[in-house]
């Protein structure tokens, strides 16, 4: 049957078709302006990076003037000139100079160290207490006249930049100078600036030199920066520019500017998609607006859908459930219009149908009960003949004990089976009846043994009459008698939570999994000759009396035989159920 569009779908499709030309026109104009806006954003990123580098160079240049200022200080000059004078108070002047170095160091916006080294006398005066007066000063190294990056021993792997000014100016090695002025600043100053720039711009800047040394911000992605460094250092770069690099299938726009003071490159990268985010955001806003207009347009259609389409759909679903046999289907919906009358009438009709069907089902169950009573009231000829012949043979052999035992158990057996007026008994009565039956079978089959383990509290539970013996009989006929090696039946009871459970298990040859599955399915189907009246009635009588979850299940035994499990609710659980409640399996 071909699908037919309802009224709501038709109106919605019409509205969508009206909005399609607007969306296509916007997409065309957006594609044209995309490249122009992208170029402007890229140029803005490079300008911002250049401005940041200019600020960084200005700070470095101010630090570079510190050695020149120290060389012009009169106290420093006096200390150098009178260094070897015997009447000169060296300690006092050293303290004064160290104080001046400290004051000049903290006056800068960056954390730095100012040091004066005098090769003559091996004197070192510094603003850092860790360097001041040290004996480990490298006196035989070249003078670093330009900013040089190094990792000093004792700085825990944190690098720093140093620059030195000597007197005389032409000296090449430290110990050739009269005095050496050194300024040093840690890369942590630059890391802090990179962090500020990253926070403001939401990018990931870092510094790199020709020797592939890196200065990263505190939250940099090392894998991406390493890949960018490898690609940048492999080529000659101008003072500033931008290139696109592909890393892990993602395109990045890399901007770089060279420092005039440090000769390092300041590099920043952003995903190309992030650059286009303003355009993407504008496009999303447009589409959201279109979606909002569409929602407003379909509001009128939705009112029609809510007041007509939904009630009809609910009624169709419920009719389909009733058609599939689910008579408990009801329409739980308030339309607040004329459909309320139809929904109410439908629910009443479904309730009446369910009551009628369940009454018919209950009548069928009662008919099965009547059939069972008739079967119970009949004497089993084959079982009776075998028992009587056993009595005759025992009497001829003058085995009085066997005759008495068989007669007593047979009398108790038929006394119980012929009492049809009481259909609900205690489990204790069923167990006693089964014991009589097993004693009779044990006289006939000498190898037969049995074990009954049922808790005392469980023996007072109520069960339908003659619900246990048919399972024991099946275990003997289809299990014990089919194999000479089969000789034992176990009856075990247990209470788990709100459930009673009795398990009848034999060690006979049993069934394979396919046969067991087929037999279990037949329990849920109408009674047939394949499964027998007794087994089918056991399952459905339990289900009808104790409700959902109760019944008979068949399983493979632990010793290879069959296991029949009876399950029903405990009496204290049944008290909460209505007395006249009827259930359908």
UniProtKB/TrEMBL annotation:
Topology relative to the membrane: Multi-pass membrane protein
Domain HAMP: 306-358
First-listed, main subcellular location of the protein, grouped into a coarse class: membrane
Residues that span the membrane, as ranges: 7-28, 285-305
InterPro entries on file: Bact_2-comp_sensor_kinase (IPR050640), HAMP_dom (IPR003660), HATPase_C_sf (IPR036890), HATPase_dom (IPR003594), Sig_transdc_His_kin_internal (IPR010559)
Origin: domain of life: Bacteria
Keyword hit for Transferase: yes
Localization annotation: Cell membrane
Keyword set includes Ribosomal protein: no
Assigned keywords, A-Z: Cell membrane, Kinase, Membrane, Phosphoprotein, Transferase, Transmembrane, Transmembrane helix
SMART domains linked to this entry: HAMP
Protein name, as recorded: HAMP domain-containing protein
Organism: Paenibacillus plantarum
